[in-house]
Amino acid sequence: MSIPSPRPVAEAAVRSVLIVDDSIVARAALGRMIDATDRYVVVGAVSGVRPALEFLKRHRVDIVLLDLQLPEIDGLTGLPDLLAAGQGAKVLVVSATAGEGAIATIQALALGAADTLAKPGIGDFAGRFSDLLRERLDRLGSVDEVATAAPRAPVSAPQQSISPFDIVAVGASTGGIHALSAMLRAIPPAFRQPILITQHLPASFMPYFAAQLALIAGRPCDVAEDHMRIRPGRIMIAPGHAHLCFARTSDGAAARLSREPAVSGCLPSVDPMFASAAQVFGKRALGVVLSGMGRDGSIGARDLLGEGASVIVQDRGSSVVWGMPGAIANAGTATAILPPDAIGRLIAEQGVGK
């Protein structure tokens, strides 16, 4: 197949898009929607992973729209190679198999896709789908204000020693599933401190998300229920319909679910989890903030820091969106700024045997 020459991008603010879909009708429909915007332009449209890789050898793009049902090499199989060839391009999966709660959705996010969108039938591309596509593109194509400012402490190693900790509380959003995977793989089975996670996802995703994390981390993972005990060697994740908070018990601590409105507007939100961890565990908590849009976690991080706890954030270079970690880094309050695998190694070094 011949590779189409890229169309010129008129101005620096316009984001370039490569469409990878085996349906010529879908490629045309997606192309019309994207070119109708004033912020995005289609520079290439190909039918599969191989031609997409050939295109990316010659051209740089900002965003790749990827279908998962492709001939020869399916989208999930080709995703890691596309990310490598894209040299920083963000992959938005647009596929009929990427619906809410679908296994393929979590798999794509764990492999490094920045976001997903369920593709409708050919006759339903107009209207609501067009709005959703623009929304997803804006989410990936925009840069949070906190990410544009240079951090006051642009370090790649700990600025100070990590305080001893009894639990690890992790917050993440867009791009966070891939970052979580890298971080958890770097933590060995000997690590016994509980890992508590708030990831922005709908409730329908949570059972499969928990199963995926258990497989990746090599340790049990529970979707939090009210009064569930926090136990060593396990992961607990916030359900999609409530914040994960904590309460002291006679023999440790337990989950307490809350639906109180959070400043960020997120449900679940990282801020209530961090604030509750600060109250219950004090300086013996460790906060981690991974890739995500917005500022969720920055208020709760201040609560943790105020108790003498440490807060580690993901570095900008490895983040899909450096909003949440960037808000803390730019405030100059991050204990360390590291890529996810290095965060995992640091947690393991500080936590094993303590």
UniProtKB/TrEMBL annotation:
EC number: 3.1.1.61
Response regulatory domain span: 16-134
Gene3D superfamilies: 3.40.50.2300, Methylesterase CheB, C-terminal domain
Class of this enzyme: hydrolase
InterPro entries from the UniProt entry: CheB-like, CheB_C, CheY-like_superfamily, Sig_transdc_resp-reg_Me-estase, Sig_transdc_resp-reg_receiver
The reaction(s) this protein catalyses: [protein]-L-glutamate 5-O-methyl ester + H2O = L-glutamyl-[protein] + methanol + H(+)
Residue positions of the active site: S173, H200, D296
Pfam families: CheB_methylest (PF01339), Response_reg (PF00072)
Modified-residue entries (4-aspartylphosphate), positions: D67
Protein name: protein-glutamate methylesterase
Natural source organism: Sphingomonas floccifaciens
